[in-house]
Amino acid sequence: MQEKVGHYDVIIIGGGAAGLMCALTAGGRGRKVLVLEGSNKLGKKILMSGGGRCNFTNLFVEPENFLCSNPHFVKSALSRFTQWDFIALVEKHGIAYHERKHGELFCDDSSKQILAMLVSECQQVGVNLLTHCEVESVVAEAGDKPESRFKLVTSRGEYRADSVVVATGGLSIPTLGGSGFGYELARQFGFEVLPTRAGLVPFTFSGQINEMTNRLSGIAVEVSATTGQQSFNENMLFTHRGLSGPAMLQLSSYWSEGQPIFIDLLTGTDLSAWLLEMKRDQPRSLLRTLLFRRLPKSLVLELQARFWPDWADRPFADYPDAEIDSIAGNLGCWQLKPAGTEGYRTAEVTLGGVNTDALSSKTMESKTQPGLFFVGEVVDVTGHLGGFNFQWAWASGAAAGEYV
Q1: pLDDT score, position 174
Q2: What is the CATH number of domain 202-341?
Q3: With a threshold of 0.85, does the pTM exceed it?
Q4: CB 352 within 8 A of CB 191
Q5: CA distance 39 to 52
Q6: Could you please report the per-residue DSSP string of 202-222?
Q7: Per-residue confidence (pLDDT) for residue 178, from 0 to 100
Q8: Which one, of 46, 22, 56, 47, lies nearest residue 36 by Cα?
Q9: Class assignment of domain 3-197+349-401?
Q10: Which pLDDT value is given to residue 4?
C-alpha cells in the first residue's frame, strides 16, 4: 500500500556518505529534508570501508588527488568543507581515530561509529530517513509553486520537493547497492554522462602471468608502478587472479584497456650499478642468492625462471655486462599487460559519471534545471585511494546542503 503524498523542501536520493552529509547540512539550515534509500540500510559502503574501520579522510587533501575531466571543478567544494571540518565533527562525537601511512585516518574501533555520527546529526536537525524506498521516477513539474517543482514516484508513495539531490553513487560493488540510476536520471534531464569504468580495482591476467600470480598469491612487495603517465610507490599484492594492493588499485584508475603497466621491483635502486657492484664484490655468488636479501624467495625464483634461466646456477662473475643490464631492465621496468580488471564487483569507485560542465562547482546544482543537484560518486570526480573519495563525498554533500 502506498503512503500519502509528502511535501519537502529537499529530497535526497541515496543514503550514503554524500547524501547524509547533504542532509545534515541542509537540515541544519532549517530545511525540511527527506532521505530516500533504496536498500535496507543506510551507509553500506561506509560500513565496509577500510576493513570495517572507515578510512574517513586524509590529512593531505589536494585537488591533485582527484581525477576529473575538469581538474579545477573540485577546488571550490574541497576548500569550503575541508578534512579539518570533518575531523572536527569526528572529535565532537568522541570517536577515537589514528593515522596510517600517507595521512590516512581510520577509526580505532569501527566504521559503524561514522555512520552513527552522521545519522545522529541528521536526526538532531529533523531529517527524515526512509529505507526500503526505491525511486521509480523523478519529474520536473510546470508551475510557479517551488514546493511542486519535482514529483517523485517511489515504492513508498509520491513525494514533492523544491530541490532534489541525486546522491546515488556509482556502479561499484553492486551488492552494496551500486547502480546506474543516477546516470539514467542525469540523461533524462539532458546532462552528458561521461563513460564509466571500474576504478581502484585489482588487475587480472591470463596465460603464464596468471599462473605465476596464482603461485605467488598472498605475497606483497613494495614497488613503484606506472602506466607511463602516472606512478605510485606502494605495496603490490599477488592474488589468485592477478595483482592487487595499493599500488595496483591506484594505477587502475589511470589504466586503459590494452595498455601495459611497468613495475620497478627494487624501487629507489640503480639496478645496473648495484648488480655490477655485487658482481665485483661477490663474484662467486648466485644472482638469486643476492636477490633473496631484497625480495621474497618465491618471487625471485619465479623471476629467475622468467628472466635468466640459462644463468641460474652460474656464479655472478660469469655474467656478461650486457646480461646484467638486461636483468636490471627487467627487474626495474617489468612490463606486464593486464587482461583487464576485476570490474565493478570489487571496484572501490566508479570513474566517469555526470559531466561537471553541467554543474555549478560552488553549489553542485544543475546549470539548466533549477533545484536539481548531483553529489558524490555519481559525478565525474574520483579520488585516489586513502580517504579522498570520502572527503569528496563530505565536501560535495556539504556544498549542495548549503544551497538546497
Answers
A1: 82
A2: 2.40.30.10
A3: yes
A4: no
A5: 19
A6: -EE--HHHHHHHHHTTT-EEE
A7: 77
A8: 22
A9: alpha beta
A10: 46
Do the beta carbons of residue 48 and residue 38 sit within 8 Å?
Answer: no
Burial 215-241 (b: 16+ CB within 10 A, else e): ebeebebbbbbbbeeebbbbebbbbeb
CB-based burial of residue 137 (10 Å sphere; 0-12 exposed, 13-18 middle, 19+ buried)? exposed
Q: Are 220 and 299 in contact (CB under 8 A)?
A: no
Place of cell 570495517: 52
Strands lying side by side in the sheet with 97-99: 55-58, 104-107, 97-99
HSE (side-chain half, CA atoms, 13 Å) at 106 = 17
Tens of pLDDT, residue by residue over 13-72, are 999 999 999 999 999 999 999 999 999 999 999 999 999 999 999 999 999 999 999 999
Residues (pLDDT < 50) of the chain are: 1-4
Domain parsing of the chain, residue ranges: 3-197+349-401, 202-341
Per-residue confidence (pLDDT) for residue 108, from 0 to 100: 98
